[in-house]
Design brief:
The protein has 491 residues and is of the alpha+beta class. It is built from 17 helices and 23 strands. Bound molecules: flavin-adenine dinucleotide.
Length: 491
């Protein structure tokens, strides 16, 4: 039987395994799947922990239901009845500026009446439709794009906190086309973001009217960008369900250390397979180098971060230069801190998604999610759960602090931004030393070079959030694409 080994049981690896198995079954093909994961638990960045009744999301807290394929995937895994939409308060988002929290205006008229930006800043945005569109192949930074189209103030007040919220990144370094391809497309298609927003709103109204006339409900049709969705027990519920599907086929605590391409003449331990993988784990398979075991495979899917992929490919690629683009994909470090309070001790209603902070405010946190207001059941009755992000490209020195240092810092920042002086009843933090890959200028070129190098190695596939989208839904989309490629290669 053909054997596929998937290295990495983050959501990309698990979802790819699931897609390969489902597609193979549907086509009547037999394939053995083995998943090797370095950590003792599956999920990678997607990690939910329930402590004292608080549901802490150390990674993704949800996805937008406009990404219909992500919802379909959860349903296929058997979690249809576990999907939960976020409360409607998530449509109210705040920004911390000049010592207070401002509601982010949700329509153009409200935006122009809001004092969030100066009159000059608002007028500058009104000129946006008059700006020339960039060349289709331009690889501008988010900063260059935003200042060109919307002005410096819009960059600092709107785009910069948005970039912090998605990538914990630096807008001066991130490529607009690679990091926010939809915004790039809007400019390319409509020539202006304002024109694009009006055209897309009109299109959605027509679609919604048609759907209502036909008695259908269309996912995401009611909200412009879809509705935030999660699972009843948190996003980790999907990891647990996938791990259960592959019980017996996952080896946790198993770090792959080397990947070798075997030639047809070198018969290895399990017959004439393409690949031989060396790994370290508690369990021994076939004797390899000292302290290592060996496994063979017909095809290998590398679902690990880019810097790990570069290490594993060293022995496969004769030219170190072909690994450079993988090594160049930067990551930043980030603290995620969960604090639980008595709801009555909150100085203000938690009537929204939470808030982000523009860099120019010089605060030490990036923002705060009002987690217990977003999804039901995230905190015990009468309690509030706040999730704070700190560090990232903006404050690398904060990303490097210890847990003893980060907790008091976060409490002080909550006092300064939200006026919270009460003692938290619950405090826990998770550190991501390499949290989110940064799609910096040149990312598209790097992908081309990586694809070319990988394409030369038969039966080797690369996936994960380092390449074509950092969101959970992007990982799911790639899983289906990679599964098709793996099966096409094997059969
Ligand atoms: C704090 C935070 C908040 C986020 N919030 C959101 C959100 O709200 N919405 C959203 O859509 N996305 C969000 N994301 C992004 C999303 O969580 C990630 O993109 C996604 O989980 C990445 O999954 P992955 O499988 O590609 O990578 P990873 O989760 O990094 O998985 C890679 C796996 O490979 C394993 N591995 C590495 N090396 C080896 C080896 N040599 N041998 C074996 N195994 C190995 C690792 O242990 C790990 O388990 C967030 C990310 C972070 C960090």
């Amino acid at each position: 039987m053909k054997k596929v080994v998937i290295i990495g049981a983050g959501i990309s690896g698990l979802a790819t395994a699931f897609e390969i198995r489902e597609k193979a079954r549907a086509a009547g093909l037999e394939v053995e799947i083995q998943i090797l994961e370095a950590q003792p638990r599956c999920g990678g960045k997607m990690h939910t922990e329930v402590v004292d009744g608080y549901v802490c999301e150390w990674g993704p807290n949800g996805y937008l239901d406009s990404k219909v394929h992500a919802t379909e995937f959860c349903k296929e895994v058997g979690l249809e009845d576990e999907l939960v939409p976020a409360s409607n308060v998530v449509n109210r988002r705040y920004l911390f500026s000049r010592g207070k929290l401002w509601v982010l205006p949700d329509s153009p008229p409200r935006f122009f009446l809001s004092g969030l930006l100066s009159i000059r800043g608002r007028l500058r945005i009104m000129l946006e439709p008059l700006r020339k569109r960039a060349a289709p192949d331009a690889d501008e930074s988010v900063t260059e794009f935003a200042t060109r189209r919307l002005g410096r103030e819009a960059l600092e007040m709107l785009l910069d906190p948005f970039v912090a919220g998605v990538f914990a990144g630096n807008p001066d370094k991130l490529s607009l086309a690679s990091s926010f391809p939809r915004i790039h497309e809007m400019e390319q298609t409509y020539g202006s973001l304002v024109r694009a927003l009006f055209a897309l709103r009109k299109k959605r109204r027509v679609e919604k009217k048609k759907a209502v006339e036909e008695g259908k409900t269309v996912a995401g049709a009611t909200a412009p960008r879809g509705h935030l969705t999660s699972l009843r027990l948190g996003m980790g519920q999907l990891v647990d369900a996938l791990a259960e599907h592959f019980r017996g086929s996952i080896i946790p605590g198993c770090e792959v250390t080397r990947l070798k391409l075997t030639t047809e003449s070198t018969e290895n331990a399990e017959g004439n397979k393409n690949y031989s993988l060396l790994y370290r784990s508690g369990e021994k398979h076939h004797a390899g180098r000292r302290g290592e075991s060996e496994m063979s495979a017909d095809a290998v899917v590398l679902a690990v971060p880019a810097y790990q992929a570069a290490k594993l490919l060293t022995s496969l690629t004769p030219h170190a230069s072909s690994l450079k683009p993988l090594e160049e994909i930067e990551y930043n470090s980030l603290w995620v801190v969960a604090l639980g309070f008595d709801e009555k001790s909150m100085p203000r209603p938690l009537d929204g998604y939470g808030f982000l902070i523009p860099r120019r405010e010089k605060r030490k946190i990036l923002g705060c999610l009002w987690s217990s207001s977003i999804f039901p059941g995230r905190a015990p009755d009468g309690k509030a759960l706040l999730t704070i992000m700190a560090g990232g490209a903006r404050n690398p020195e904060i990303g490097a602090l210890s847990e003893e240092e980060i907790l008091p810092l976060v409490r002080e920042e909550l006092r300064l931004t939200m006026g919270i002086t009460a003692e938290p009843e619950f405090m826990q933090a998770e550190h991501h030393s390499k949290a989110i890959p940064q799609y910096t200028i040149g990312h598209a070129g790097r992908l081309t070079a990586i694809d070319e190098a990988i394409g030369k190695v038969p039966g080797l596939f690369l996936t994960g959030n380092a390449y074509r989208g950092v969101a959970f839904a992007d990982c799911i989309l790639q899983a289906g694409i990679i599964a098709d490629k793996v099966l096409e290669y094997l059969f």
